[in-house]
């Protein structure tokens, strides 16, 4: 039985461990932090998760029962709810029928659920194991994980899965053995976690429609909110760093929120809003990708460790889960681990590059374009064409979020072809409108 | 007196230390390796250096006498000498007059010379200091360098200069305090060091013209050779990795070299050639850049630590020396260290991005284009226009290698403008040639 060391007990690491364990590998998870199920420290930098089809597909592939449990704990969101400056709310469906939904779920709940499953599956879980470096056994070439602190024994495995997040130590080690292309880029946008408590006597009533992802789009900055099961919403404020830094005292925060997010101030509560701005850390957002993702049949990185993306397409976790799915499939299909890793690096790069780019672009859509008449017109034409042409015409958002059978790069390719046609139609419509208006004007002035 | 820790005792680190020391800073150099002047181990991965105007300008700025010593130990190269398959040699001037030269110099000689100057200047040199991490003093925020090995004392400085090469530990630390954009990309080309011994009874006679950079351009791969003072040439073979890997036994090497570099086999010597391929390590080539280069008034990276480039424009060291020049000038002009670092990051990035790109592109020119008739035609027009228009028209190579007053990004900008015009002229000439040929053909067929 081959032994596997999975570095990182986050969402992607746990799912990979479960999948490998089901395939008969002897799996150990090494996590640098303490068991989150025992810890009282809440992470104040979490952005709520939306699990959609790609994620669900991977969960189902690994364990249909697990997927069912997860889906019983989500809140489906069928569209965006746009809040304008006056507090007026307008709904925009995500899907074609109004029934397709992405699903709000609490990150720590999901992580704890996965950790419980991992334990049930007989996978060894070692917390407080901070990776120092990876050495190789001279005899069989197997990777040996060495940890910080002399009292922790080194561990040897047949291969290693690095699922240890954006600042991955496994990836840093990988760069020592292979010629790895690598890039990371921070976007000029930070974020801060806020929350909207539940209302009513029991504080468990939703103060906004729970089945929407709420957005207050204000061009350069925005506020969002996603519902939790207990009636509360987790809310996140995104803004360029210069704006975030100016919001450094109570007066500035209050003035800013009263001006741009008036209806949210009541929902969040004035005191709580100010407390969050005083106490919560500011998070930064980066895009990173590398190539290749593996070293021989010994080490591979997946999830954020291989490719971090900004959160604006709601695909970070879904894509990480899809990594697990793709890798498990290849381990099944290819002749050995080395061939599977090699094929993974070869085929996965273009899909990851596609979704990273889309995630970056979607900030514009969320914070700005959702307000634009031309955008809404294009979206309407998009929907009409889909209704007429059925599966021959699919909006990009639908392909990314609801069609796990279409890989990211394919979705972008189809979208680019469709977008050219859309632009032509849009211009014809706008042209007709201008023509019509000019006729009206002519009629009026001739009179 | 402010204290400065320079990490890295390579060429750029030494020059930075000398420059800062002259400006009144108390400088200490920390180097992870042993003193190269004491060591017998020859680096078998060096690619010969060509110092040109930007490098000389920086040396002169730091110490005119030092520049003079360096220039007394170089071999000027006024052009490329192209070796074709039959061994026929053709000279191509680098400059406009045939007198402008880039200057071959031995890397280890130059490094030892700089180390001697560093010691004379009273700069503290600490070898075998392998940086572990940078901490900060809680009281004054000063960086503290911590080294690997408990017996080595941590050192505190007012600020740190990281000149510790492509795999810079200072840069890796910097990434922990700031949001640094970063990219690295390996090109599909490795290299292997060879050499051509001196000839004659004393083995000190040059077997090729010493005042040329010799190139055997073979499209996807190439061989180059630069003269050393002792009559020998340091030669480097560059090729895509699949070709390099196939040259894994004596027969394959010999067959390959006999086929593509026949005249070089005699020069290098059959046995020595095979020995080199057996024993010498294969080097890889990467491009890397980051942004910003500094953290507050505490840490900055320069040279290869900030931007590694492939060696095909002969600008790696020259650019690193120019970094030192630009930084020293800013420390003079700006109100404090923080302002100087900040201005450096702001203004230097576009110049570095420009030269990195040019270096990558120049592989095509060296290995392939120098053989092309159209390239040579364009080059001739370029030279003619320069002669007519004087300073108003400058070939790119001239601006990069001989005009330290024109920054890299400016040179690229001017070149792009000129190149458009060149292409038009070239097309007119080629058009005229085609027209002329068609007239001749018509005349001949009508007869």
TrEMBL record, chains A, B:
Reaction equations catalysed: L-kynurenine + NADPH + O2 + H(+) = 3-hydroxy-L-kynurenine + NADP(+) + H2O
Pathway given in the UniProt record: Cofactor biosynthesis; NAD(+) biosynthesis; quinolinate from L-kynurenine: step 1/3
UniProt superkingdom: Eukaryota
EC class: oxidoreductase
Swiss-Prot/TrEMBL keywords: FAD, Flavoprotein, Membrane, Mitochondrion, Mitochondrion outer membrane, Monooxygenase, NADP, Oxidoreductase, Pyridine nucleotide biosynthesis
Location within or outside the cell: Mitochondrion outer membrane
Location of the FAD-binding domain: 3-331
GO molecular function: FAD binding; kynurenine 3-monooxygenase activity
E.C. number: 1.14.13.9
Gene3D superfamilies: FAD/NAD(P)-binding domain (3.50.50.60)
Transmembrane region(s): none
Gene Ontology CC annotations of this record: mitochondrial outer membrane
Cofactor: FAD
Entry similarity comment: Belongs to the aromatic-ring hydroxylase family. KMO subfamily.
Stored HAMAP family: Kynurenine_monooxygenase
Protein name: Kynurenine 3-monooxygenase
Recorded name of the encoding gene: BNA4
């Amino acid at each position: 039985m081959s032994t596997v060391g999975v570095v990182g007990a986050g969402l992607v690491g746990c799912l990979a461990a479960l999948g490998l364990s089901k395939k008969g590998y002897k799996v150990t998870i090494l996590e640098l932090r303490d068991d989150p199920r025992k810890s009282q420290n809440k992470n104040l930098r979490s952005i709520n998760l939306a699990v959609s089809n790609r994620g669900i597909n991977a969960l189902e592939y690994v364990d249909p029962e697990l997927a069912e449990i997860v889906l019983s704990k989500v809140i489906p969101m069928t569209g965006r709810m746009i809040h304008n400056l006056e507090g007026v709310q307008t709904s925009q469906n995500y899907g074609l029928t109004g029934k397709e939904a992405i699903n709000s779920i609490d990150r720590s709940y999901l992580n704890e659920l996965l950790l419980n499953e991992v334990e049930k599956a007989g996978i060894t879980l070692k917390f407080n194991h901070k990776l120092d470096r990876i050495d190789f056994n001279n005899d069989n070439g197997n990777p040996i994980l060495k940890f910080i602190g002399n009292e922790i024994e080194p561990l040897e495995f047949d291969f290693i899965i690095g699922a240890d997040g954006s600042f991955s130590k496994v990836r840093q080690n990988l760069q020592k053995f292979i010629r790895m292309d690598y890039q990371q880029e921070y976007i000029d946008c930070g974020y801060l976690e806020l929350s909207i408590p539940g209302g009513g006597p029991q504080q468990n009533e939703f103060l906004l429609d729970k089945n929407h992802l709420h957005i207050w789009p204000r061009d350069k900055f925005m506020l969002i909110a996603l519902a939790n099961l207990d009636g509360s919403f987790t809310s996140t404020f995104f803004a360029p760093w210069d704006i975030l830094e100016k919001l450094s005292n109570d007066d500035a925060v209050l003035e800013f929120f009263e001006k741009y997010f008036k209806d949210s101030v009541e929902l969040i509560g004035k005191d709580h809003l100010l407390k969050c701005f005083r106490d919560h850390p500011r998070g930064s957002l980066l895009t990173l990708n590398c190539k290749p993702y593996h070293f021989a049949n010994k080490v591979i990185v997946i999830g954020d460790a291989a490719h971090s993306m900004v959160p604006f397409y709601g695909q970070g976790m879904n894509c990480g889960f899809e990594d697990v799915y793709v890798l498990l499939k290849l381990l099944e299909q290819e002749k050995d681990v080395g061939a599977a890793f090699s094929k993974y690096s070869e085929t996965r790069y273009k899909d990851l590059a596609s979704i990273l780019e889309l995630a970056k672009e979607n900030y514009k859509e969320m914070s700005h374009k959702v307000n634009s008449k031309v955008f809404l017109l294009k979206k309407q034409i998009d929907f009409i064409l889909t209704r007429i042409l059925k599966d021959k015409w699919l909006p990009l958002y639908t392909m990314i979020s609801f069609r796990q059978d279409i890989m990211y790069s394919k979705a972008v390719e189809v979208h680019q072809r469709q977008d050219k046609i859309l632009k032509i139609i849009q211009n014809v419509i706008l042209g007709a409108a201008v023509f019509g208006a000019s006729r009206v004007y002519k009629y009026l002035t001739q009179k």
